[in-house]
Design a protein that fits this description.
The complex is a heterodimer.
Chain A lengths: L1 H31 L6 H17 L4 H22 L8 H23 L13 E4 L2 E4 H23 L1 H11 L1 H6 L4 H27 L5 H16 L5 H16 L6 H18 L11
Chain B lengths: L22 H18 L2 H26 L7 H19 L4 H24 L7 H21 L15 E3 L2 E3 L3 H22 L2 H11 L1 H6 L4 H27 L9 H14 L4 H18 L7 H15 L11 H5 L15
Helix pairs in contact in B: 1-6, 2-6, 2-9, 2-10, 2-11, 3-4, 3-5, 3-9, 4-9, 10-11
Classes of the chains: A mainly alpha, B mainly alpha.
Chain lengths: ~280, ~350
């Protein structure tokens, strides 16, 4: 019985991590229609910023708070200078952002070497219930993921800014005619997606430690999750991330990890093949 | 990487206007350099050059699917790697190393896997979106890599070491000039075959797919089937390259199947110029040569430079290096003659 709860907790916390990583990816894919291959590297940058702050002697949580802003700002600059040229052709966008990601990844690799650098959890220890121990940091991740999810939803669904984003998504020409600067909106959306990735990276670095291929690990998983959930809505990618994260964490308890890892992807691709619109079809929030 | 759709028409004024053709000149120069190279290179460089030629063959296969048919395959390494593993297993477990058997086997393995993966991703009731195909192939590559790493029979992380050399009768084909010329011969043959293919009416239909898929569908072509055909053909080419690579290196390892090699080949082709066969070759040679040249002193920053170069090419030269010297008109090219229209088209 205890084991079951521990397993459930593991699954839940890994699912939360995947949701956190996929959220930014999903928002950019859904709201702007481009698949950002540099998203994994934004995660990596978030982790790297946290590491830098930590190694300069400041508390880890300052780094975690700074990471989304730093990465978001970088995302904004990149969107203004480079990514906006790609909107016309989604495939070119994939290749272009892949190149961007390659540059970021290799620069970070040059800076940290081929090392695995660990960053301590700002909140150590564990929460004990009966004989069971739950890592408190993982609990924090689950909590923050829930908060970020609700916050992003409210931002997109309930605020004027969110309305503008959705308007620019559904009918850019009409949005422009109504006085919305779609250019600025795209920049802000991309920056927001990047900031979410930065936050994800900052939060997960104590769990996974920092290494150059950290982002790559989540990239494919993230894309598959977005496709499974359905591009075009807010709920779709989140649902997809939940399913993929849960499967990826749960299957290794039942079958050998390597087979589980591959099986998740194979199942996901088969699912997308026969239901291209994903779990949740339709646009909007 | 698609340029604005150029008009797909047959040239009507061929007889009157003999323009100076740049493409054949480039091709002949490249071939001449390739033939003469082993005479001037040191032995270890010839071995390196052989590897580059094999990668050129691999790049051709990606160029066929992306440059001509507009199918984004991020998983071309699957066919390269499975063929490599396949021939390695044949050599290890069955002791068969005859070139007359292993190369066709590699070709067949690449073809079969491409047919299966391509058939699944491309065929079916719903036409697949480009994004789905690219993600599907990428995932395939990742999955193949993972499976190879975890499968004891395939050697796990270490792959299959010390594959015996390919043989012809009792003669062992080991790395060096002989292997070099063997590879060059195969590359040339495949190149000519592809050149014929992409300049035929079939090639015209493919180019139409790349430029405007819907239009080709409305003309009554079986779009999905065309795609599956070229995808499988390219898989066979990649398989051939993979088996040559396995015997040349003497071992295979999981990276051969993985995402890194899959994206590497994308870089080669984009850099050189997709949609021209010679572009794939030039891109591979250029990247590998610079990589070799920088490998001693600037190993660390080379990937960064590569990324920057790629980004610049995508932004400013979507048609790649080749487009610097090749006119748009010639890059698109003419296509084989229509049955009823006499001798209009050429090349």
């Amino acid at each position: 019985m205890d084991n079951l709860f521990v397993a459930l907790f593991e699954i839940l916390s890994f699912g939360a991590i995947v949701v956190l990583v996929v959220l930014g990816l999903g928002i950019i894919a859904s709201m702007m229609g481009i698949f950002n291959f540099a998203q994994g590297e934004f995660v990596l940058l978030g982790a790297y910023v946290t590491y830098i702050v930590h190694s300069s002697g400041l508390p880890v949580w300052i780094g975690m708070a700074a990471a989304p802003f730093v990465v978001g700002a970088l995302g904004f600059v990149l969107e203004r200078s480079i990514v906006r040229r790609f909107y016309a052709a989604p495939i070119v966008a994939m290749l272009g952002t892949y190149a961007l990601g390659l540059i970021i990844r290799e620069i970070v690799r040059g800076l940290i070497g081929g090392l695995y650098l660990s960053v301590p959890e700002p909140l150590g220890g564990s929460v004990n219930i009966g004989t069971m121990h739950f890592s408190s940091w993982r609990l924090v991740i689950i909590l923050i993921t829930a908060l970020v999810m609700i916050g992003s939803y409210l931002l997109l669904a309930r605020t004027a800014f969110g309305l503008r984003i959705r308007a620019s998504l559904e009918n850019p020409a009409l949005a422009r005619a109504s006085g919305i600067s779609t250019n600025a909106i795209y920049g802000a959306t991309f920056a927001f997606g990047a900031a979410l990735a930065g936050l994800a990276g900052a939060l997960i670095v104590p769990v996974f430690s920092l290494f150059a291929d950290l982002g790559l690990r989540f990239l494919i998983q993230g894309f598959v999750a977005v496709m499974v959930g359905g591009v075009g809505s807010f709920a779709g990618p989140v649902a997809g991330a939940g399913v993929i994260g849960t499967l990826a964490a749960a299957l290794p308890w039942i079958i050998p990890p390597v087979i589980a890892d591959v099986l998740v992807f194979v199942l996901a691709i088969i699912f997308i093949k026969f239901r291209p619109q994903g779990l949740i079809s339709g646009k909007g929030v | 990487m698609t340029t604005p759709p150029p008009p797909l028409r047959l040239p009507l004024r061929v007889g009157r206007q003999r323009r100076w053709q740049v493409l054949p000149i480039i091709e002949i120069v490249v071939l001449a350099i390739a033939v003469l190279l082993p005479f001037v290179l040191k032995d270890y460089l010839t071995i390196y050059a052989t590897r580059v030629l094999i990668l050129c063959l691999f790049a051709l296969s990606f160029d066929l699917v992306w440059g001509y048919a507009g199918i984004m395959s991020f998983g071309q390494a699957v066919f390269f790697g499975t063929a490599g593993y396949g021939v390695a297993l044949i050599a290890r477990d069955l002791g068969v190393t005859s070139i007359l058997l292993v190369l066709p086997a590699g070709l067949l393995i690449g073809f079969t896997f491409a047919l299966l993966l391509g058939g699944f991703l491309l065929l079916g009731r719903h036409p697949s979106s480009v994004i789905f195909v690219s993600l599907g192939t990428l995932t395939g590559s990742y999955a193949a890599d993972r499976v190879a790493r975890g499968w004891y029979y395939l050697g796990g992380q270490n792959g299959i070491p010390s594959i015996p050399p390919m043989s012809l009768g009792s003669y062992d084909i080991t790395e060096g000039p002989v292997y070099y010329y063997l590879t060059l011969g195969i590359l040339l043959a495949v190149y000519l075959l592809c050149r014929f293919l992409v300049r035929s009416q079939f090639g015209l239909a493919l180019a139409g797919l790349r430029e405007n898929e819907q239009r080709i569908a409305f003309f009554g072509y079986q779009v999905q089937r065309l795609k599956a055909i070229i995808f499988s053909f390219a898989g066979a080419v990649a398989g051939l390259a993979g088996s040559l690579y396995a015997f040349h290196e003497g071992f295979v390892w999981p990276n051969m199947l993985g995402v890194v090699i899959s994206t590497q080949v994308v870089l080669y082709v984009l850099f050189g110029g997709s949609g021209t066969l010679i572009g794939a070759v030039i891109g591979t040679v250029a990247i590998e040569a610079v990589s070799f040249w920088l490998s001693n002193s600037y190993q660390d920053i080379w990937p960064i430079i590569l990324g920057v170069l790629l980004l610049l090419v995508i932004l400013f030269r979507p048609a790649g290096l080749v487009s610097l010297i090749l006119s748009e008109r010639e890059r698109v090219g003419n296509f084989g003659r229509l049955p009823e229209e006499g001798d209009r088209g050429s090349s």
